[in-house]
Write a structure and sequence with these properties.
Blueprint (H helix, E strand, L loop, with lengths): L3 E4 L5 E6 L5 E2 L5 E10 L2 E7 L5 H10 L3 E3 L2 E6 L6 E5 L1 E3 L2 E3 L1
Parallel strand pairs: 5-8
Antiparallel strand pairs: 1-7, 2-4, 2-6, 3-4, 4-5, 7-8, 9-10
Length: about 100
């Protein structure tokens, strides 16, 4: 099982989105989507969103190449992605991050 380490950072994340996936449904019926967030010229992070209602605005920002500010995102280190911190949007509830 992959290990995730929470990093306590309350600063907003500002970046550009790339590779936004379609909305998916987990085995436990949780809806989510993935994206890559570019926070600097050569700095990319994987992101998971458990707030499907934000999907259209993220896709629009990707299409228009406009930056987005993410508040209340939790940054974790995921051992399955060795060099990329994983940002998860939302609050922790029953082992899932939701908004």
């Amino acid at each position: 099982m992959e290990k995730k380490t929470d990093i306590s950072e309350n600063d907003p994340i500002v970046g550009y989105f790339h590779g936004v996936s379609p909305i998916k449904t987990s085995r436990k019926n949780t809806r989510y989507f993935n994206a890559t967030v570019q926070t600097a010229r050569q700095e990319y992070h994987q992101a998971v969103f458990f707030t499907p209602e934000k999907y259209n605005s993220i896709v629009t920002a990707q299409k228009n190449k406009t930056p987005v500010k993410l508040n209340n995102a939790r940054k974790t280190i995921d051992d399955s992605l060795p060099d990329l911190p994983l940002y998860q949007s939302g609050e922790k509830r029953k082992g899932k991050y939701v908004t």
